[in-house]
Amino acid sequence: MRGRIWLYLSLAANVALAAGWLGSWLRRTSPAVVATAPESQPAAQTVVPRTNFVPRRQFFHWSEIESPDYATYVANLRAIGCPEQTIRDIIIADVNALFARRRATEIVTPQQQWWRTEPDPEIEARARAQLEALEAERRALLTALLGPGWETGDQISLPRPSQPGLPLDGPLLGPLPAEVKQQVQDSYRRYQERLAALQQQAAAQQRTVTPAEIFRLQRQWEQELAGILSPAQLEELLLRYSPTARTLRQELSQLGGLDLTPDQFRAWYHARRRLEEGLATLAEADSPASARQIQDLEAQYQQAIRLALGEERYRQYQRLQDPEYREALAQAQQAGRPELAETFYAIRHALAEEVTRLQTNNDLTALQREIQRRQLELEALKAQAEVLGENLPEPQPPAPTLRAHIYRAGETLISLAVEYDVPLSAILKANPGLDFHRLKPGDTILIPVPSR
């Protein structure tokens, strides 16, 4: 960005040097004219031509112009005749860099909590509010320095990267120098290009990319980053953006109900990384003993997870492998009683067993099996309601059986009540939409069958 200002400064310095050379030449040639005059002529008053050249220092340092106070900085640029367009470009770039550093170091974003499968809503809302406040502050500063029309300059039309980079923020990645961040972004871009080329090659060969191929690319990327970042910075970046970490977060998100601490996620990540490395090595070897070695790697992986989580959390992890338990946990969480997940699971498990037994009962027809299945589901719902302490509705009396009567001329409601031995009110209730004052022969009247 500062290349343009140096171009203008160099041009100004060259003009000043040319003016100084011209003045010096004029001073040297004036005495020579006087000395060549004929000696016989009387001495005359010598007129020495003068120039408007004012000696000034020809070189200056950028530190004499740059200032931590932006208002002074703008004034210094204008004092040396810097064009307004260049001033706008310099100030906008400098202010943007300043606020980029502040965004990277002052705000805690959900991406920094790489151990969470779902973003923390409070962290997300707070980060959004802080970003909006910083953006308002940035725009207000630029407006104060450059005027309300600063956004109409060429700066807003400058090209942007075709691929989004990695957010390098937080305590470890945020303070990285700009050149180091650029190296990381360039390495990530090369990794993405290699991955895209590999996918295109596999598609041309009508096959899918193997995990071993992806792992080799990831390892190459990690080796590049190891030459740029410290070990702690490299681990932070990989925990946030590596394919291994992203896949692990997706799997944990699908399981649900297993919130990890940063140390637990870190240990799990490294165990997963060792598993992927071992599987990639075996895939390349393609030896007869690979099946047994894969089993050994899986066993080591499970043991590492057990050590990372502890026995109680590991049992919960095993439970979450069962879809029925995940549904029971989700149901308990929805009811606001996550501690009842085991009870709900037991009810659902018992229901599943009864339904399986019912489906294998060949003594029942398909309709009978369906009726009994619905009755079992109703019993399971009642059991869940009792566990939650919800009052069950009072059982409703069964709906009365109705018979159809064809109205004949001369009949009345009273005669029908006597004929069928039912209360008059029951006949009225069974025919809510019928106008008994306009009955005509052939109309249908529903008559309740009295219970015996």
Give an account of the 3D structure.
- It is a single chain.
- The chain is mainly α.
- It has 4 domains: 3-39 and 47-157, no CATH class; 170-322, no CATH class; 326-387; 402-448, Membrane-bound Lytic Murein Transglycosylase D, Chain A.
- The chain is 63% helix and 2% strand.
- The protein has 17 helices and 2 strands.
- The chain has helices at residues 3-35, 70-79, 84-106, 121-146, 170-173, 178-204, 211-226, 231-241, 243-255, 262-285, 290-309, 311-319, 323-334, 341-359, 366-387, 413-420, 424-430; strands spanning 402-406, 444-448.
- The protein has a two-stranded antiparallel ribbon.
- The model is unreliable at 25-46 and 154-163 (pLDDT under 50).
Strand order of the largest sheet: 1-2
Q: Give the rounded overall mean pLDDT.
A: 79
Can you tell me the residue ranges where pLDDT is under 50 for at least 5 consecutive residues?
Answer: 25-46, 154-163
The biggest beta sheet is recorded as: 2 strands, antiparallel
Number of helices: 17
Structural class of the secondary structure composition? Answer: mainly alpha
Radius of gyration: 43 Å
Distance between the termini: 98 Å
Quote the beta fraction.
under 5%
Pfam families: LysM (PF01476)
Domain LysM: 403-447
Protein name: LysM peptidoglycan-binding domain-containing protein
Coiled coil: 181-208, 364-391
